[in-house]
## 1
Amino acid sequence: MRKEATRETKYWFQHRILTEDKKGAWFAAANYNGLFYHDFHRKRVSFLGAFPYGKYANALYWSGIKVKNKLYFPPRYADRMAVYDISDGIFTAMDIVPGNRAYQIDFGQNYLGYIPICYGEEVFFLYRCSPFVACMKGARTSFEYILCGETGESLRISADYIISGDYFFSTIADSNRILIFDMKNHELQVKNVGDSEKRFFSIALTEGFGELLLLEEKGVIYTWDFCSDCIHEFLRLPDSICSVHQPLSFYEAGGFLYIIPFYDWFGNLNRCYKIDLMKKHVEHVDIFREYDAYIKFMVYREQDHFGFFIAPYGEDIYNSEHVALLDLHISEGILEKREYIPPGNIENGIFYDKVSEYQRHISCNRLFREVSGKNVLSESHSVRLEDFIVYLEDLDS
């Protein structure tokens, strides 16, 4: 098990966009306005820059997606969606929330962010606090908005979802409801499945059986036929699995269903569960054997790759100096894992230090403060890119 500490890892903890070859990832920092690239195999992290009109705050962006040569980071606590052009290194931002009051949407506090989805030439951003989708297509300079009858109600849409053909499915927390998004026809609906006492928190598609599986909080797996709306009990999990009420993620591969912790704040979920769907046999897989008493948090799930940040229990995963990235690869019933230790230094570190100093400066001053002859606002307001550049130039002089 890894023993050494790293110098500076506060920027590490955040969801990631994997490259196509799974050899690296882009990510927006957790408690900082900045974009980084992590090269897994060269063991290097490069600071690429900061997003314009961004605040200095935690969890500005919770997810992201790569579309051709651009990265899109929908907002969580940020005011706008961040965009990065990989080819020319240009940062931009765009509004994602409709300004037209004809859309009667009670957004409230965006504490869950969006789920980004690529579908043909369209890109969807599904809002996780209410059934609402922003659709970007064509030149990708504007949005269309897709609503459903339950829009306006505060919901918690799970980050664990599946896509089957033209349909997106996700569970809604603390309920028996399933969110269904018909991406082809731009239709959203929320459907009650089974009786109202059920509480589903994970969903999977079994390719071999052609049915959806739903995991209920009491540890019962159900099969659900979306077309006929029939639901049947498939399997009851051992009590040891059900005793810990923390989210679990489904993944089906090679006739096996894997149940993997979505996060583990207490360091007591050290195993995933592998189910033979034909035999209905459950076995434990000790994927976290060497990380006993480590907290874990899933930061990406792309195809057959799962990524976790891990840190010793009792430490703040946002600020721990003992954090590492663990990549799980599940294919044809075989599970492989690789650990990537954050390097102690950042490429382009001088630029990183200057940006960090600037953001701390505006964050620590709640009143107007003159910088380079310009007024810079506190962290709860946007900062003009022109002022930001002038400040960096003055630091060089």
## 2
Amino acid sequence: MLTRAPYQRATSLQTTYENFLARVGMAPDARCMLAILPGLEILCVGLAVWGTTSHARLFLSPADNQNASPVLITPRASEGYTVEYHLVASGGLAPQFQERAFATTPDEALRLIALAIDRSGWGRPPTAPSAA
């Protein structure tokens, strides 16, 4: 389940990005993130995931696995999404190196996020849902 990190004030990620729609310069990024939120919710079923926002960026981290690497999703307005994470060594110890990928559509972004979760030590690999 994807939950807003408890130390951030807004009640949900949906509400946060809806509020960003009214801010000058943030509306394009907010629309990008709102397009993938339903798919992220499905992707995180069966996982305890905290979502933390920093401006329009979204950090996903497993609430129950401190050895896993967080996944950073950065909207690029009309260009797409950047997905970043650290590959975790077998055995779940320190991250080996950083991986960065670019997606031009919400569906591509969800596939990359599913791959990032799988490769960054979260546990089970998720199945990427469609953004539609």
